[in-house]
């Protein structure tokens, strides 16, 4: 299942796999199940998705995709090797969209985004056999990444009564701010004169 949405989006919603977050019938991430039914209304209220509860929602400024885009038998979780095999496709999609704000949904996507695109993985218990991130605490928080703003989203199947409001408020706050970030490529060239012509 390939990504779906605005190819020039500033927001990239990143899920785990179709068996976890939906879309098996529709071929569209975050549709056709409880995750989409919970998440789509919030995205609609902030203006990123049009028709709520649709298998083909209209989208503005949002791209949706999965770490592991294949449907697996009985909706089982991909193995570490299967995630590794699909990583290059996800990575290519992420770089092609070049969003400014990453919205990883659930523990697996959040761990991957933190590990690959921030310097905060270990701070949040990711790696070294630790328990992993506290998704209830991280939900709808702003984390500065390497060229990205990361806003983890607790798996909607685990949302408490205020989680939808917290995400809605955070997204509205980001949308009303100057959220676009740039990657500082100069950090790879120590002592370089930014005005020197080469």
Overview of this protein structure:
This protein has 198 residues and is of the alpha/beta class. The protein is 32% helix and 10% strand. It has six helices and six strands. The protein has helices spanning 18-21, 34-45, 80-97, 106-117, 135-138, 163-175; strands spanning 4-5, 11-15, 62-66, 101-104, 143-144, 149-150. The chain has a six-stranded mixed beta sheet. The longest helix has 18 residues, at 80-97. The radius of gyration is 17 Å and the shape is globular. It starts with a strand and ends in a 23-residue tail after the last helix. Residues 182-198 have low confidence and may be disordered.
Quickly give the structural class.
alpha/beta
Order of helices and strands, N to C?
EEHHEHEHHEEH
Total number of beta strands: 6
Termini distance?
44 Å
Identify the strand order in the major beta sheet.
1-3-2-4-6-5
Helix content: 25-40%
Q: Which spans of ≥5 residues are poorly predicted at pLDDT below 50?
A: 182-198
Question: Beta-strand percentage?
Answer: 5-15%
- Rg measurement, Å: 17 Å
Shape: globular
How many helices does DSSP assign?
6
Mean pLDDT: 85
Most strands sheet: 6 strands, mixed
